[in-house]
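#struct-pred

JT: dropping the chains for the assembly here, can someone run the whole complex?
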Amino acid sequence: MTSPAAPSSFPSGLPSSPGAHVRAVHDDFHGDLLEVSMGPHHPSTHGVFRMIVTLDGERIVRLKPVFGYLHRNHEKLGEQTTYLASMPYTDRLDYLNSMTNNWAYAIAVEKLAGQAVPERAEYVRVILAELTRLLNHTCLAGFLLQDTGCSGTPLMYAFREREKILDLFESLSGSRMMCNFQRFGGCRLDPTPEWLAAVRQLVDGYGRFLDEFEALISGNEIVMARTQGTGVLTPALAISAGVTGPMLRATGVDYDLRKVDGYGVYPRFEFRVPLGAHGDTYDRYMIRILEMRESIQILRQALRDLPAGPILDPKAKNRGFRPKPGEAYGRIEGPKGEIGFYLISDGSPNPFRYRVRPPSFVNLTILEDMCLGQTVADAVIILGSIDIVLGEVDR
Amino acid sequence: MSMSESASTPATSGPASQEGFSPTQQERDELRRHGILLTSLEELYNWGRSNSVWPLNFGLACCAIEMIAASMARFDIARFGSEVFRPSPRQADLLIVSGTVTKKMAPQVIRLWNQMPEPKYCIAMGACAISGGPFKQGYNVLKGIDRYLPVDIYIPGCPPRPEALLHGLMQLQAQIRGQKLTGPDRPRHLRADTGCAYPVPEFGAHDLEPPANPEVWQAPSLPRSG
Amino acid sequence: MESLEQIRERLLARFPDAALTVIANPGPAGQPSLLVGSPHAASIAAFLRDDPALRLDYCSNVTGVDWPDREVVETIKRTVPPPPPAAPADPSAPPVTPKVIEEKVKRHIPGYFEVVYHLYSMALKHGPVILRTRTADRTDPASLPSLTPIWRACEFQEREVYDLFGIRFTGHPDLRRILMWDEFKDYPMRKDYVEPDDYEWEPTPHGAVLDKARRHYPAPPESR
Ligand code: SF4
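RK: done, full complex below.
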């Protein structure tokens, strides 16, 4: 899959000048370029994302993403409401992973206010975050295969497992998707022993599901032909473009905030960080499968070691919360990458500035670089492998 | 269905069945139980339409995930004949507005609606599609898709559970089954005096222009003056 | 990693005429930041990225902040020297203690726009180093240097800051609106933005929502 417009590597980490590749093509160009607007209503764009693709035959010579079709003014609303009232809004950022969004926001506010978190809550947070990772990566694998044209079946398998995890979330928090579960200084509710037993049961069965899924997909010839060698991302470009999460690790860069920052109680668990070698779509798929297997290990350890104690710091103040003036940036390793919250407090009940650092928005920076020289059909799976959720991209 | 009701009523009662040939619905149902199919064109037509409502494969936000979940194994929207999510509006009967309609997206939603052939239906799924929901106070959020489009079914929730979507679909099916082919209250697609296209708003300097379609939506007055 | 003070020292040694101020963070997070004058911002950013001891190769987060004009009332304690004794000092009188008075001073802080960059190092796994750049005031067009040539990660985030705050980034390769439509004229994340008054009836309006609704709708006919 090479063409004159294939993305060059960026050894210095310097960004490509947008437009350079287009000129390169135009120079010896004899036909008509075709401009296609994919989206905002397009079955493959995972929501209301839009890309304007310029095609030379079937090859992409230019791709401009267009955002904002789901811009719900999250940051403005965050500045108009109190700290606690923003918590349910974070559920709706990346609506597949409400638990990790909650945690990232809670961590930022806890930093801002210097709030401690009880040990049991830290463990419960880890359990919920890893369940969310399972949920997200499973759905992603399903959607990605849907994009390759494998219509329906893998997604059915993925959603079957998703429902099981959602049942757990629902019985714990009362809502399937919008859990609104974390509080500043702990969690809202204490999980019961029955709930923990149900998690244990799910965790024990999850490896079998992954085996089944992988037996169907990972060695499949068509999947490999479609995904291997497409959408290659180099480590230098990935770092310069701020790509994080499984996308970054698929290029071979070892950067996992669970290890780097060691937030929460992650340093107590033994787990490995899977790394890719080629940075192509197949690696990005495989990394997620491997991460799920590590998540299962973390879940086992967390369930084994879960201590007794309070779930919410008794001194924590959630209502009428007014942190002292100052600012804080808190971040965690979400399933899609680094999700961070930057808060500036001026001492009032509302944040003066409330900013979300959305992983999938920043990861989209290199969409054009990955798609240049590929066919339109490949652009669809490259986009699928980035794993975007529009609620978070546009906020 | 109304099987249980009809079982308690005698099949041959009622003067209507003796004079002309217009059995009541109950009588038809009772006959059907005995293997005799009596129907009218209207009933057949609505029965067929109501059981093959094809939605547009169109998701906007969080609610779309629950819409997908409704079409997956556990909830299985195929039981109601609506599993065929069409990517093209030209082949779809039902627009499920599943999520927040932003002002940037609203013209495209209306364009999609205009491209759908009649008879077509619209479900507003979730608080956002109904009124803007939790994001109502946002500057870029449309405060309800019913400002521009005629909505048939509203499904509250944030997000509504897949069961709620299925219930909404069943309500829509009941609505379709009750439509008349003739008469003054026949639906939009059987009338000559109504079009199926709605004006698409323009992007303005501060807001959409116009901010609502006055033919479908009027601002209600404030019930509380205090 | 070095402290921000040390980084500042090294930067001053390298760029002697650069304006560099360490902004303390009064909160418990302990994340101070470095305010960089815009003429040197790009070269300082390149230095931070390439310096072998720092290698801040990863720009995580780019944020715009709008600081409107503020009036700060500060209480200042001032010592008033005792008035000179009118009469010749009476040695038996108690010594006059200097008087401390509290004064309220109103200080006007003019507003400005600020862009905050959170930098980390993926190679050395440390951070954050927080950079800030500021405009002189809030007049339009506000402009600041773009750091997209240094970190590609800034490309979309700076476009977003431009879209929502109206800060023009000089040197940005593709500065267009990103979230709002192109015809949109306002900058909605500014503190003085007035949103379109398209409020709808709510069943239980209260507070700000009720006020907005009242302004928008004619009062209902007298029905009591
Ligand atoms: S109603 Fe709730 S779940 Fe549905 S789109 Fe709006 S915010 Fe998301």
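JT: nice. The CA atoms of residues 34 and 87 of chain C lie 57 Å apart. The first helix of chain C runs from residue 4 to 14.
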